[in-house]
What we know:
The structure is a homodimer.
Chain A: E1 3-11, H1 16-24, E2 35-38, E3 43-46, H2 49-64, E4 70-78, H3 92-97, H4 102-114, E5 122-132, H5 137-149, E6 154-158, E7 161-167, H6 168-181, E8 188-197
Antiparallel strand pairs in A: 1-3, 1-4, 2-3, 4-8, 5-7, 5-8, 6-7
Helix pairs in contact in A: 1-2, 2-6, 4-5, 4-6
Amino acid sequence: xFIGAQVSLYPMTSDFVDVILSxxxxxxxxxxxxRIETDDMSTLMVGAPEPLLDAIRDLFAATARRPExxxxxxxxxxxxxxxxxxxxxxxxxxxxxxxxxxDARKALALEAVAAAPVTGVEIDxxxxxxxxxxxxxxxxxxxxIDFVKGSGTYxxxxxxCTRLRGDAGAVFETLRQAFxxxxxxxxxxxxxxxxxxxxxxxx
Amino acid sequence: xFIGAQVSLYPMTSDFVDVILSxxxxxxxxxxxxRIETDDMSTLMVGAPEPLLDAIRDLFAATARRPExxxxxxxxxxxxxxxxxxxxxxxxxxxxxxxxxxDARKALALEAVAAAPVTGVEIDxxxxxxxxxxxxxxxxxxxxIDFVKGSGTYxxxxxxCTRLRGDAGAVFETLRQAFxxxxxxxxxxxxxxxxxxxxxxxx
Lengths: 203, 203
């Protein structure tokens, strides 16, 4: 299994370079568990979903604590057949999920969101979950939408994506659970997501 | 068939509101062919791939002609089973593609990129193509990667995505062809893409 993300942080300020560089400090605690490589368009992070989503959450929350409008785009992927197996991506939750039905996985996902830490940072996020390479992929997507609607972070459905709002802790836990619990445990699953904080637009 | 995109423009400047609003002027010629609705996170555009990708290209190229660093995130989708049929999304190229093999589709895609208009704006773009709800989805993805490598806009493969560079005309035509020609004509296909221009990072 290979699990990771391409992450881009977009501070809407002329000081964006400083904001990005100081935001990257939030990744320091995760550098031992994740492979992290930055180029001019995005930062690759490879590793298990536990440190991976914690790192993405902390990066965005650290930047969103500043006053400027900031957004982030993340492409998450697990199980892509074109990527090599990587032992650092081993995820017990995925292994255990092999034998669980959709309802059991929804219940575990809801428990995890209820137990999420509170960061004190309110964010908006929208995402699309893609379950690849199998028939009946929409069953898993509708199951995930059911979970999200009960998670406490659901705001609304939009064309092509689902909109969340709430504390960064609960919102990114909702995202992690959507990524982990839906679609086959050994399958190819991706998420396309954008987050936003401190927007001057009317909410 | 329902075809559209969620589009977000991110100018990395404290003047971002003005830059976004003036960028949206580039959409004026397309408002008769596309349904366009903006909220606080993204702009929904619904319609056939011809005006849809032209509008996205012109929006980004107009903003990238300014000196500031700007990025854009787009979620493209066609054929999502959860969306209603919309006659305004009718696409002759998709209808004709029904009976064509992978090699014939690659050839048509290369022709289209060679005929793309030149905008004079150099951009970077990375994208992931997702073919949903069918076995053997990786064949279509590898076919698309073959096409992209011959398109003249290919820069490099990255984990989870493919990186393009070149004139906005050729780059967005490559994206449109990837979206249209790969994956079943009546299937559910999505693209997750980010574009960048005027980055101060070393290329």
